[in-house]
Amino acid sequence: MKQTAQRRAFQLAPLQHWTWLLLVALWMGLMLVAYLGGTHQQSAANPVPWWLVVPFATALLPVGLGVALTHRSIGIEGDRLVIAAALVFARKVPVAELELDKARVLSLDERTELKPMLQLGGFTLPGFNAGHYLLRNRNRAICLLTDRQRVLVLPRRDGRLLLLSPEQPQVLLDALRVIAQH
After folding, report:
1. Which of 1, 7, 18, 42 lies 20 to 30 Å from 55 when distance is taken between CA atoms?
2. What pTM did the predictor assign?
3. What are the residue ranges spanned by the domains of the chain?
4. 29-71: per-residue pLDDT in tens?
């Protein structure tokens, strides 16, 4: 019988309010285009009025993006750091692959060379980055960023980085160091 490893979850920093407002603005823009963008004739075979369909049809994209934004997590399962986001991105990184003595908490506003520059795979919205990125200093990184003021930078032994924004970065770093000592 296989025993499952216990998972310890770490809360992510909350998304910026304007990220959610962006989704509302996207929905309003889509509705405006749909209402003003053409002739609307009611089909006799369709009992649902067109003006009632438009708000629901245009809401599909922003609601889908909102659902993707709410599915994000950082945790530890056994001896692995587990990162998941946006329903399309998940990674399990063994703690032994991390150089925890070089890990640090910093602000990306001060250390601009570590800002994500080019998305190589993942999900990006203003104020949210999840996936593989090329950084401004040309390093590759796995990112899960919701707050750029307190970012935990975890170097890997292969030269790549993990950039994470947990609500309490030092607590996550301490937990990783305890696991690395065992």
Report:
1. 18
2. 0.85
3. 13-69, 73-181
4. 999 998 888 777 777 888 888 888 889 999 999 999 999 889 9
